[in-house]
Specification:
291 residues, Four Helix Bundle (Hemerythrin (Met), subunit A), eight-stranded mixed β-sheet, 12 helices, binds guanosine-5'-diphosphate
Length: 291
């Protein structure tokens, strides 16, 4: 049997679903388990209410029925979002945004490899030009992934001009997918959003932007989401990447984050290795989450 993920509700739910019957404790215990898993109070209340209604409707007292109902309900709610990446343009331009430290650089490396595995050629653009070390780190990941990289000509070069060079080169060289890294310094929020706006305007003159992916650290759950609010409001985000799910106990965040932001999860990082990135499949996640 596959190893149980840290974010699975399995052990928290075992007592509930292994009990003889559904009673008042069932609902209290279920509510606490969902809150602990970071579903958030609103989603938790909603789920418990829906399940109570179903249990009544089907006149069941068997906790195994409740187990199945929870899994189906979570899958149904996760499936309301279109989680497929839209990369049909040539070149397909992907902007990657997010607060520093969430795993943006690592994600770009893994994503380049992921696309390479499907035979796609990838060019990474290092438009976070503020720190030379960040560019070097990105270059290391690009190399590992077998992807080309467009670097700034000097430290602090205008990020939009690096983005321009990157897309320009992809068009000249016939590279299929462009992934552009962007800055994530929170202390300059206003400036950061202006910078992103400029990158987008410059890129859009050359090619449509296929995806703007916001990277979120799953271990910070709903708190991290508050930090990323400015990106959600102003960056035209088309999808989310959840990182560090491997070390997270917050499985409920997977559901809550889509419902709170209205944005689909498109990629999930579950480890520090280059192969530790997958697409997001609601059925698989519902199954793993509820067990
Ligand atoms: P950035 O500042 O957003 O570019 O973040 P980095 O890509 O440098 O990552 C910050 C730290 O998070 C590094 O130590 C990464 O190895 C780690 N990290 C990134 N993604 C994952 C993940 O999916 N799982 C785990 N366990 N660690 C990750």
């Amino acid at each position: 049997m596959a190893e149980r993920a840290s974010w699975s509700l399995g052990s928290a739910l075992r007592g509930i679903f292994g009990a003889k019957t559904i009673d008042d404790d069932t609902w209290d215990d279920l509510e606490s388990a969902l809150i602990r898993a970071d579903f958030g109070p609103d989603v938790t209340e909603d789920i418990v209410e829906q399940l109570r209604a179903q249990v009544e409707r089907y006149r069941t007292t068997d906790p195994r029925d409740l187990n199945r109902m929870l899994r189906e309900l979570i899958e149904e709610r996760l499936s309301k979002f279109d989680t497929t990446l839209k990369l049909t343009e040539r070149p397909a331009v992907v902007l990657v945004v997010g607060v520093n430290g969430v795993g943006k650089t690592t994600t770009i490396g893994k994503f380049a490899k992921f696309l390479g595995n499907y035979g796609r050629s990838v060019l990474v653009g290092a438009a976070d030009t503020f720190r030379a070390a960040a560019v070097d780190q990105l270059a290391t990941w690009a190399e590992r992934a077998g992807a080309a990289i467009e670097r700034p000509e000097r430290e602090g070069q205008d990020p939009a001009s690096v983005a321009f060079q990157t897309v320009d080169r992809a068009k000249r060289e016939g590279i299929e997918i462009v992934i552009i890294d962007t800055a994530g310094r929170l202390q300059t929020k206003g400036g950061l959003m202006d910078e992103l706006g400029k990158i987008k305007r410059v890129v859009e003159k050359q090619a449509p932007i296929s995806e703007v992916l916001l990277v979120l650290d799953a271990t910070t759950g709903q708190n991290g989401l508050a930090q990323a609010e400015a990106f959600i409001q102003h960056a035209g985000v088309t999808g989310l990447v959840l990182t560090k799910l491997d070390g997270s106990a917050k499985g409920g965040f997977v559901l809550a984050v889509q419902e709170k932001t209205g944005l689909p999860i498109k990629l999930v990082g579950q480890g520090e290795g280059i192969g530790d990135l997958t697409g997001f499949t609601p059925h698989v996640f519902a199954e793993k989450l509820v067990g």
